[in-house]
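Show me any protein, keeping tokens residue-aligned.
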Amino acid sequence: MEYRYLGRSGLRVSAIGLGTNNFGRRLDADTAAVVVNHALDMGVNMIDTSNSYGDGYSEKYIGRALKGKRDKALIATKVSSRIADGPNDGGNSRQHIMGEVENSLRRLNTDYIDLYQIHWHDANVPIEETLRALDDLVRQGKVRYIGCSNFMAWQMCEAVWTSRTLGVESFVSMQPKYSIMDREIEAELVPFCEAYDIGILPYYPLANGFLTGKYRRGQPAPEGTRLAEGDRGMFTDANFDLLERLEAFCEERGHSVLELAFAWLLANSAVSSVIAGATRAEQIVANAKAASWSLTAEDVAEVNGIIDGAG
């Protein structure tokens, strides 16, 4: 497994991370433990969750799975999402953050969180309030690094410069939706992260599973797959045309499109770890294997040409 620095921090994270939004939803505690332990065995140290995943059960299952082996994992969790109906049960206020960090620590059965991430931007709370609260948590030793998710480029810029102005902890990472099929963040967010050395942690790298190779033009989605309940707009002729061109590229090199999906993201040095969900041990193996394929500059250019319709 390759390990990369998380942005400008000194923390080294596995190039492939484990996403756990299925824990407590599709996976019970025992199955989740199997997935976590297999990930650790494969060298995956980045485990990403949220206080909202599985109504808190994702964090609980991770805490159970890491009992006696906490030092082998880097826990990244999040706060922001509404978790109850009270007036302060969501958002990025000091009140909500300070209360939820204690709940996350308890569920995770740990006394510190490696990476505490703001899940969503909150237009109703000044970024100064959010950053000062996070800075206090770092100083208290409850949080070691801070990051964010789903921010726009201007929101990231505001946060970074506010941190510098106040002299408080700053975000070291950003977790956006990013894949071969969804490159929207390349317009502004990726250049910003590159310029300010913010580690990118892409989620949905397989475009809701479309890049796994499970889906075929004109055929129903396999039962039990993510897109079986609805194609989420993925099953278009244009998308299948692109998928087939990418498959031809991969076949010439003895790889799969799934492997390309990870390798293409990791070809960007600003990407610190690709967050990928898994419900079975064999998926962990496939995801980890993908990190071993290093695309050349020529490969990346060819793939980009295919994506842009030039291939």
